[in-house]
Recover the amino acids of this structure.
């Protein structure tokens, strides 16, 4: 079963507007972490924001905020005041604790391509 | 600190050849991960090291793949007898042991098997 679902293959937003990128997740582990990464066309994965499952408040990092709704198992990324440089792929990921060796790995969704129009 | 460094950035190889990629993590990070990303997909976990110990390998990692981190610093990923299906972006990431938060990724090595 897919553990991270990003239902929006592509999104468009006008410069200076806000945009919400959707992410739902599935886990039975009470302790987990949720991440958002940005991947520009150059390929590197850039960390944006993190939300722990026990965090009481929604995470914020500058223009990025995470709308965490635990009961709905959703962790949507909100980008405020979009800039042309925000055009990129955005990936939602969940930290999964493996039973094998106690390692932690990230499980990624398929991503959403965001295009910011001038 | 220059972040996670991967070499080469691009590799084109003929089917059946062996290739080796290198990853230099952030110096104080003892956890190192390899992921593979195919077109239109998110990265998929391949393997994980804590210091020099390889603690987990994904089922995606066939016998043709081997990864090492001999001194707990840089890591290499080797693919033997490459196949066209191996064409992908190979991403390396590193983190602190009790990071709880982000893993830092390199810029990746894009492999094309022709």
């Amino acid at each position: 079963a897919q553990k991270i679902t990003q239902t929006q293959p592509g999104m468009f937003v006008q410069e200076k507007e806000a945009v919400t990128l959707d992410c739902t997740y599935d886990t039975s582990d009470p302790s987990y972490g949720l991440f958002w990464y940005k991947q520009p066309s150059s390929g590197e994965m850039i960390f944006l924001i993190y939300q722990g499952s026990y965090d009481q408040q929604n995470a914020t990092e500058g223009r990025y905020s995470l709308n965490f709704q635990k009961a709905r198992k959703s962790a949507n990324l909100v980008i405020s005041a979009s800039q042309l440089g925000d055009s990129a792929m955005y990936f939602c990921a969940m930290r999964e604790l493996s039973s094998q060796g106690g390692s932690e790995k990230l499980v990624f969704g398929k991503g959403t391509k965001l295009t910011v129009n001038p | 600190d220059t972040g996670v460094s991967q070499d080469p950035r691009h590799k084109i190889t003929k089917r059946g050849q062996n290739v080796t990629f290198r990853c230099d993590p952030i110096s104080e990070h003892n956890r190192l991960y390899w992921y593979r990303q195919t077109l239109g997909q998110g990265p998929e976990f391949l393997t994980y090291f804590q210091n020099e110990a390889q603690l987990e390998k994904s089922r995606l990692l066939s016998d043709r793949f081997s990864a090492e981190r001999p001194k707990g610093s840089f890591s290499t990923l080797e693919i033997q007898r490459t196949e066209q299906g191996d064409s992908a972006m190979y991403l390396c990431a590193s983190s602190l042991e009790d990071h709880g938060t982000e893993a830092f990724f390199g810029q990746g090595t894009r492999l094309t098997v022709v």
